[in-house]
Amino acid sequence: MAGRSRVVILGAGESGIGAAKLAQLKGFDVFVSDYGVITDKYKAALEKLSIPFESEKHTEELILNANEVIKSPGIPSTAPIIKKLVEKGISVVSEIEFAKRYTNAKVICITGSNGKSTTSLLTYHILKNAGLNVGLAGNIGQSFAAQVATEDFEYYVLEISSFMLDDMFRFRADIAVLLNITPDHLDRYDYKLENYAASKMRIIQNQTQNDVFIYCADDEESIKALMHIKPLAKTYAFSIVKEVETGAYLKAETIHILTEPNKELTMSISDLALQGKHNIYNSMASGIVAKVLELRNDTIRESMGNFKNIEHRLEHVAKISGIDFINDSKATNVNSTWYALESMTTDVVLIMGGVDKGNDYSMLKDLVKSKVKAIVCLGKDNKRIHDAFEDDVDVIVNTFSAEEAAQIAFHLAKRGDAVLLSPACASFDLFKSYEDRGNQFKAAVREL
């Protein structure tokens, strides 16, 4: 086997396993290392492919001999193993960067502090309905690398986080969308908003005048960042407060999308499937992408009118006494709960817990401190949640049924708050599946 280039993958989650599949397919000598516990599903996937791996440790002599390392977005650049790799001059990239080398598909990359998942799903929905051969990846769905290895899509809609962008260097987006920049997980950015903003702006790195950049003209931090970085790409802005020349704007309850003269799409906001101010922005961004790709107006309108956000993924259940109840039962890992909390704009009563898969809750700490007023545990053994967050929230309560969890959360919340079921754990201690957990929660909310 001498002479084969060695690729080491750090982190054996969805993106790590996908990267391992693609690297093996491309003839690399592959090794996977995870400092945490590798789930049975991903262990089985690696065993099936006969890819060597290690769990709950990083063995330096098996990692520091890599030609290149692909790291999970969850691993910060301050992790000791990453520092050692950088000191040795070993290239460390994201799965997205690695996978992009092996596809000629057009990539539509969507980033922002809030609304990424919804906008990515809506954009994918519009493109798919218009008959394009399109995949959905990044922070959402199946890993990009796994799809590059096994599918033959001509377009990809990629939901991209700042953590991914930090490990992207040569990657180029054909269409880049920046929804907004709000102060978020600044612990990874030396507590400086400008560092986080610079990370988000990497979405336009390597773009040429043949590419497209779409941004929000109402977002203060995006505008500030654009004063320092001039995009080479063709730019389109969207706004709900002023008219823009090319892009999208709101006037008299109607969205106007104009990517070139005399080719305007108009749509009443009451016809949009996604309601709420933040969703007008998301719909505008998706609509501009569709117009840039020259899809037909009636196709775009139809898709923007019939889109359904996936069940059990940040699904709005009801508003009771001014409290929003949100079902995110599909969040069976810490990462998903992190995204759910990241998207919240109000104080949150968080319902979490279940079968803990060796979760590292530390990545949630800052979001819990800033947004969560109480945690309602829903599971048989909640000790690790208490240990993780006892210093960050005033109230942590144990419950053992969806009904009990919904009732207690309702009492802990006040008008204007949100009750969010986003468990960060598997459901099998009390429920048949995450769908069963979500459905029982929804039924319990409707009984309140």
UniProtKB/TrEMBL annotation:
User: Main localisation, per the record?
Assistant: cytoplasm
Residues annotated as coiled-coil are none
Domain Mur ligase C-terminal, by residue range, is 312-425
Subcellular location field: Cytoplasm
What sequence ranges are listed for the domain Mur ligase central? 110-289
InterPro entries to which the protein is assigned, alphabetical: Mur-like_cat_sf, Mur_ligase_C, Mur_ligase_C_dom_sf, Mur_ligase_cen, MurD
Pathway(s): Cell wall biogenesis; peptidoglycan biosynthesis
Its keywords, alphabetically, are:
ATP-binding, Cell cycle, Cell division, Cell shape, Cell wall biogenesis/degradation, Cytoplasm, Ligase, Nucleotide-binding, Peptidoglycan synthesis
Record-level Gene Ontology MF annotations: ATP binding; UDP-N-acetylmuramoylalanine-D-glutamate ligase activity
Can you tell me which residues bind ATP? 112-118
- Name a single GO cellular component: cytoplasm
EC number(s) given by UniProt: 6.3.2.9
Pfam families assigned: Mur_ligase_C, Mur_ligase_M, MurD-like_N
Q: Mind listing the GO biological process terms from this record?
A: cell division; cell wall organization; peptidoglycan biosynthetic process; regulation of cell shape
**Reaction equations catalysed:** UDP-N-acetyl-alpha-D-muramoyl-L-alanine + D-glutamate + ATP = UDP-N-acetyl-alpha-D-muramoyl-L-alanyl-D-glutamate + ADP + phosphate + H(+)
Q: Which SUPFAM superfamilies match?
A: MurCD N-terminal domain, MurD-like peptide ligases, catalytic domain, MurD-like peptide ligases, peptide-binding domain
Q: This protein's superkingdom?
A: Bacteria
State the family it belongs to. Belongs to the MurCDEF family.
* NCBIfam families on file: murD (TIGR01087)
Instruction: Give the protein's function.
Output: Cell wall formation. Catalyzes the addition of glutamate to the nucleotide precursor UDP-N-acetylmuramoyl-L-alanine (UMA).
**What is this protein's name?**
UDP-N-acetylmuramoylalanine--D-glutamate ligase
